[in-house]
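Dock adenosine-5'-diphosphate; give full complex structure.
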Amino acid sequence: MSVNLASARLWRGFPQAILACVAVVAVAFMLPSEGYYLNILMQAVTYAIAVSGLVVVLGYCGQISIAQAAFFGLGAYGVAIGMVDYHLGFFPAWLCGIGAAGLLGVVLGLGSLRLGGHYLAMVTISFQQILTLFLTNWLEFTHGPDGIRGIPRPRLGPISFEGGHAFLALCMVTLVIVTLAVWRLKTGRLGRAMQAVRDNELAAGTCGINVFATKVIAFGLSAVLGGIGGGLFAGGFQYISPDQFSFGESIVLLTMALLGGVQSPFGSLIGTMVLIILPEWLRFLKEVYLAVYGAAVILIMVFLPDGLWGLMLERVRKRAKPILGDVPKLPLLSQTGAARTDFVLTIEGLAKHFGGLKALDGISLAVRRGSVHALIGPNGSGKSTFINVITGLYKPTAGRVVFAGQDITHVPPYERNRAGLARTFQNIRVFRGMTVLENVMVGAERPGNDVAENPAFVVERALAALDFVGLRGDAHREVGALSYGHQRYVEIARALAATPQMLLLDEPAAGLNLTEKHELGELLKRLKGHGLTILIIDHDMKLVEQVADHITVLNFGKRIADGMPKDVLNHPDVIAAYLGEPQEAAGAAS
Ligand code: ADP
Ligand code: MG
């Protein structure tokens, strides 16, 4: 069944793609045969392919790259050097260029391990400059600043691409395929992982996504697309030189992507067309044309931050309909009725120091399977730090974390999630650029989850999780459009969709109004009824008393009490440190 589903998915949209290819080939051959039109289109089409690479790396994955012209150049030089100097056929030479671009793209992506934002931008610029230096100065290999002339066009069996129309048709078909592939990527598992990394790296990691690998893949793919476009550019113009792949061109490619809308390959396509065709249209303005062109670009960018495509999409989104259908039947919680005797999480001597501050100072505790374990304490007592260390966001200064029999003290966050540890954050960390359903799908797609490999089941599971928290009717909405309280529920649903063994909730009631707090209490009771192990931090004592089987109290990073709720809440140290007068205990901290 899953094989059928997978192949059905693979072929979905296939007839439309064939139609689109036939249409563009027809258009290519209907063009006037003057070189001028052919050249402008050839440039627009090959650039558009490279720009779609920026959609992947910047639009989907949120990583700035100011080196797309360099990858475009690698593809072009691959074809030029391969064909002219090494007498390879066009297609093998093209592959070499694409391979070189992809390889260097991965290398550049490795630089994103410790760098982000401005620093990553600087690294990509440096890479771009180094490549330009190579192209200009390595005379024996690249022919230097004079460039390479007489690049032949290919034949493929009986089909000749030597004529302008035929080669343009090849470029256009490639563009159609690339655009559709990039578009499909967005709605698939990898594309969703990229968007999760873009929207919130920390949360993505705790949802089972290997953030670093995802970024490297995005850089690699983007470079490959640059190489594909560049190879066709070389064949199209039959002459290339280093200045065509300079820093300035990288900026042009970036502008095209941003102008059209970097979130979508259709947006980037529009941006590319506009930036290549607009100056041609404006030529009649003679001296002032560049100024008018520049002003037009600036105005579009200022008034349409999501690009031209974003403008169109806004209208489409307004018409999005709720996702209906039967209540999904996929089981949400897998370990109902699990034995309640063993400890699922054991912490020994856990410490976390920030410089001189001992946020955690030798904490030991054990969480029984199937129980609700509350962690309380005054502000700044180390509760969030505790969860951050357990989920791998902080490295402990000392101590050991054993989860489900496995020592996870030094395991990265995504592997802890894959082992069955899911969490929510004190400060909400949802993926803002995605819909409610997509947010929860990211949770369901954690590698190793029972449904992860099957897109249809992933949707079912996500809907089941949304159903559980009462947000099924909002599945199609942008997550940012929900109330604060409902965004918290989205986070809980995202965690549940991963069918965790244990759920860590960091102040889930913070910022909720009274009705929402009541709903949360009911939700927690239902989860508890299913036998899910929960570690909850909260200040709302009513809520804690309602659900907790066991309470641990922290103060200044130390454990000051641990045990059954009624004993702990009446413990003199706890009263002194945290609750004030015992009679007021129930209401004081809410
Ligand atoms: P709680 O969640 O119990 O309110 P936290 O765990 O957030 O407390 O913080 C415990 C202490 O650790 C606080 O004094 C806080 O300022 C400090 N702290 C937390 N995170 C960091 C950090 N990343 N860098 C430095 N100090 C931190
Ligand atoms: Mg906290």
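Observed: Residues 354, 357, 359, 377, 379-385 surround adenosine-5'-diphosphate (ligand 1) (CB under 6 Å).
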